[in-house]
């Protein structure tokens, strides 16, 4: 973690003292769609930024949303943040961060505009795929190593979008209302960890309003919480076009105003700001502080040093990282009769059906898009994996041009009837998982339910693979399907990883970072809260987001948070819970996990805490620890997880502070939020 030492602080002060007011102001707003201005005479370069969470985006003209159109801005297409979260592997988060950080530097960027960590409040948010989870603890655990990884490569992470940006409908102006407990327990912790533990050098303020103030002009959010509360000394970058008022943005915490238009001098923090300083409405020291932070960032990134990390992109090592994460992100949702893994030797003909089997997703989604060097679709991956002894035959089955679907279904049925095995690849695409628009329902589009139903009639053993960045509804056919594999958008190697999982080259080990409800109306944002609101949206469900709601209110989801099967079996035993009372209370949780099956595999052991008696309303249980462990067949490992006072605490909104109450708590240990194998009560 790089800190600015006294000598550097002094140097920064001297640099600022040499700058004119105009030069300072030129550093705090966009002078290109993805860069600020530099000050050549002082040797200060522009600060260069790039989207986004799945890799380094293609290059644009400085002042137009037109591709430069070169051939050297291809880059590694990594799995989405949601896929990473489904791996629950914090080492992989660090490796992902290092790889994307290196690619950003390789493409001469200073700031990568990711990771995205807004809470998945509703299955419908168009940008869910760019975010990680419904659970703030899981987000915190994944985001910290990710940021640290990025920043080892002299690239700044830009964790986004701060805060409460949980829908795309009216994203530029919707006003979010929620109570203090929801804010502090659900919507802020990921950002707090990103700042306090991850030391994210930059943070992106959101478009929307919170409690009546634009997040990018909110004294409460940017000054009280972020700077004073969390001691943040990094740079706040506005989302592109999120600023609406010169004075508020200047005083309430924006360091760099970015926008989507090319009238750079007219940005709120450009000429209008200069004018306000000149006529005394805003003190020059407000600008000095921003420049100080920006220069601090530049020193942290070694921008003035010849030793600055050079970076590299499109390397085979980065593709390997993308593949390893894709493998660990696959979630085996259902596997009746152990139909998977398939045996390649017994398959002479394989029917692969569904547009998503042959669809590339890298170029979609808007700012998260990637100009990928290549992208293996499941069809390519399956064909590569199977080789010459199996004939892989493809039928589209459905199309985003829905008028074609009845014909396509007929053709697909014929194919399924005539092949030894059938794999149907369904799901969403970036017409649905998309920035700027939410879905209107949770159903599979393009007539896919009909397709799956018809295929299951002719082949009840058909393997169903769903690819989507958000929960979708499986109800019309789920009871008839024996096998369901899920992959979040998983990067350029994702299709190959799917093939490896289906044929057992890898043992699936991902778990859902988000609940898949049976139907939309079961989802708390929809049955208690509001969605999408009009001018305002009320988060009436409060802290009951995701499994916190489903478990507390006893609503059965289709697939619960933390769910994911394996080709082997894991046994849990020997739970010991030890309360150690020192200055701070610690609770040592220890248990054994044994691989009791015949194949090696990884298990994500999850530890939940339940507050049994409380004068405040608490969720039935909350995730407070997990460990991903690899076990050979027959092997047993001891897992130790230490809980601390934060694992017991809640936000006391009457006294505006985090606290816990003495009394009885329960530790629950298991394989998912609803497959709990061990429990023990302890008292504090
Ligand atoms: C998005 C950001 C993105 C920025 C720059 C905005 O519309 O909300 O996530 O980083 O554009 O492309």
Describe the protein in words:
The model has no long low-confidence stretch (mean pLDDT 97). This protein is an alpha/beta fold. It contains 19 helices and 24 strands. The chain is globular, with a radius of gyration of 25 Å. The strands form 6 sheets. The protein has a 6-stranded mixed β-sheet with strand order 9-14-13-12-10-11, with helices on both faces. Strands 1-2-3-5-8 form a 5-stranded parallel β-sheet. Strands 7-6-4-15 form a 4-stranded mixed β-sheet, with no helix packed on it. Helix 5 links the parallel strand 2 and strand 3. The longest helix is centred in the first third of the chain and has 17 residues. Among the domains are: 196 residues, Glycoside hydrolase family 3 C-terminal domain (Rossmann fold, 3-Layer(aba) Sandwich), CATH 3.40.50; 114 residues, Immunoglobulins (Immunoglobulin-like). Beta-D-glucopyranose binds next to loops. It comes from Clostridium manihotivorum. InterPro entries: Cellulose_deg_GH3, Fn3-like, GH, Glyco_hydro_3_C, Glyco_hydro_3_C_sf, Glyco_hydro_3_N, Glyco_hydro_3_N_sf, Ig-like_fold. This is Glycosyl hydrolase.
Kindly report the name of the CATH homologous superfamily of the domain at 316-511: Glycoside hydrolase family 3 C-terminal domain
- Secondary structure class reads alpha/beta
Biggest β-sheet: count, sense, barrel?
6 strands, mixed
Question: How many extended strands?
Answer: 24
User: Roughly how many Å apart are the termini?
Assistant: 35 Å
CATH topology of the domain at 316-511: Rossmann fold
The CATH architecture of the domain at 316-511 comes to 3-Layer(aba) Sandwich
Total of helices:
19
> In CATH's first tier, which class of the domain at 316-511 applies?
Alpha Beta
Shape: globular
Low-pLDDT segments, ≥5 res: none
Report the portion of residues in β strands: 15-25%
Which small molecules are bound? beta-D-glucopyranose
Oligomer class: single chain
Rg value: 25 Å
> Strand order of the main beta sheet, please?
9-14-13-12-10-11
Helix content, binned percent: 25-40%
| Average pLDDT, all residues | 97
């Amino acid at each position: 973690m790089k800190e600015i030492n006294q000598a550097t602080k002094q140097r920064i002060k001297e640099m600022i003292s040499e700058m004119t007011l105009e030069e300072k102001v030129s550093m705090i707003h966009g002078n290109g769609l993805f860069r600020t201005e530099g000050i050549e005479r002082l040797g200060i370069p522009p600060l260069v930024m790039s989207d986004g969470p799945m890799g380094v985006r293609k290059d644009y003209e400085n002042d137009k949303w037109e591709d430069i159109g070169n051939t050297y801005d291809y880059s590694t297409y990594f799995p989405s943040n949601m896929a990473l979260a489904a791996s629950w592997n914090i080492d992989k988060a660090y490796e992902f961060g290092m790889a994307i950080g290196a690619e950003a530097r390789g493409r001469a960027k200073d700031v990568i505009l990711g990771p995205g960590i807004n809470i998945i409040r509703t299955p419908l948010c168009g940008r869910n795929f760019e975010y990680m989870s419904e659970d703030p603890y899981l987000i915190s655990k994944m985001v910290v190593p990710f940021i640290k990884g990025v920043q080892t490569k002299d690239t700044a992470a830009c964790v986004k979008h701060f805060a409460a940006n949980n829908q795309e409908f009216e994203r530029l102006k919707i006003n979010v209302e929620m109570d203090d407990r929801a804010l502090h327990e659900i919507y802020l912790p990921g950002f707090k960890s990103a700042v306090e533990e991850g030391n994210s050098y930059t943070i992106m303020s959101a478009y929307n309003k919170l409690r009546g103030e634009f997040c990018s002009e909110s004294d409460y959010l940017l000054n009280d919480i972020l700077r004073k509360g969390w001691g943040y000394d990094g740079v706040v970058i506005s989302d592109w076009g999120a600023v609406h008022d010169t004075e508020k943005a200047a005083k309430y915490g924006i360091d760099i105003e970015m926008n989507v238009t090319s009238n750079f001098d007219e940005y709120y923090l450009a000429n209008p700001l200069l004018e306000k300083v000149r006529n005394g409405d805003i003190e020059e020291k407000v600008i000095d502080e921003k420049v100080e932070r920006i220069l601090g960032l530049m020193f942290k990134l070694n921008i003035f040093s010849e030793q600055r990390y050079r970076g590299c992109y499109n390397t085979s090592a980065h593709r390997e990282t993308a593949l390893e994460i894709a493998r660990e992100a696959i979630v085996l949702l259902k596997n009746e009769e152990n139909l998977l893994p398939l045996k390649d030797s017994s398959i002479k003909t394989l029917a692969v059906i569904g547009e998503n089997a042959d669809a590339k997703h890298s170029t979609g989604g808007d700012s998260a898009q990637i100009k990928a060097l290549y992208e293996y679709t499941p069809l390519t991956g399956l064909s590569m994996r199977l080789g010459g002894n199996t004939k892989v035959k493809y039928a589209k089955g459905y199309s985003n041009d829905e008028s074609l679907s009845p014909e396509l279904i007929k053709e697909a049925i014929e194919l399924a009837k005539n092949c030894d095995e059938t794999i149907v690849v369904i799901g969403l695409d970036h017409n649905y998982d998309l920035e700027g628009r939410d879905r209107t329902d949770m159903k599979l589009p393009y007539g896919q339910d009909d397709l799956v139903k018809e295929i299951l009639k002719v082949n009840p053993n058909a393997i169903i693979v769903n690819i989507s960045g958000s929960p979708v509804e499986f109800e019309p056919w789920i009871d008839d399907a024996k096998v369901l594999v899920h992959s979040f958008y998983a990067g350029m190697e994702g299709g190959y990883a799917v093939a490896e999982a289906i044929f057992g080259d890898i043992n699936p080990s991902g778990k859902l970072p988000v609940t898949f409800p049976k139907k939309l109306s079961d989802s708390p944002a929809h049955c208690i809260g509001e969605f999408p609101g009009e001018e305002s949206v009320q988060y009436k469900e409060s802290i009951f987001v995701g499994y916190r709601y489903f478990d507390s209110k006893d609503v059965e989801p289709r697939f619960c948070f933390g769910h994911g099967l394996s080709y082997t079996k894991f046994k849990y035993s020997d739970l010991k819970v030890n309360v150690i009372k020192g200055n701070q209370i610690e609770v040592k949780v220890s248990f054994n996990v044994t691989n009791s099956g015949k194949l090696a595999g990884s298990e994500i052991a999850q530890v939940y805490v339940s507050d049994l008696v409380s004068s405040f309303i608490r969720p039935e249980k909350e995730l407070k620890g997990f460990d991903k462990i690899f076990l050979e067949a027959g092997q047993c490992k001891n897992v130790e997880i230490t809980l601390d006072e934060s694992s017991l605490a809640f936000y006391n909104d009457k006294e505006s502070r985090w606290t816990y109450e003495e009394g009885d708590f329960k530790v629950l240990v298991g394989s998912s939020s609803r497959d709990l194998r061990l429990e023990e009560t302890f008292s504090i």
